[in-house]
Amino acid sequence: MIFPPATVCSSPILTDTPHRALAIIPARGGSKRLPRKNVIEFRGKPMIAHTVESALASATFEKIIVSSDDDEILAVAQAYDVETMKRGMALSDDEARVVDVCLDTLDTLEDRGERFDVFACLYATAPLRVPTT
Known about the structure:
alpha/beta
């Protein structure tokens, strides 16, 4: 297969241009393989807390949102003073796709007049990331 020549990316995240960045942390409550995995204690705190702390410590994001169908997960996020969005059942079952959760979050924000240049989807079950600024 022949690939076209590389092009220069003009994404604001790759330039020195200031941008509005959003972090979306999707965390469903109904895991089948490891029940309650997003709030299971890991290294002394709920699993999702590590991701929220890393997002905050990075100082990269203007807004951090945890999207969940689960009140306990949302309560943990609220304890860190980040925004939470309770999602509907259509985005909470085993067939729900993360891309649809992110698009729903972006649509909700846009309906409120909030727009972002870039967003990152941070998984709650990746607690060992190291924030950089």
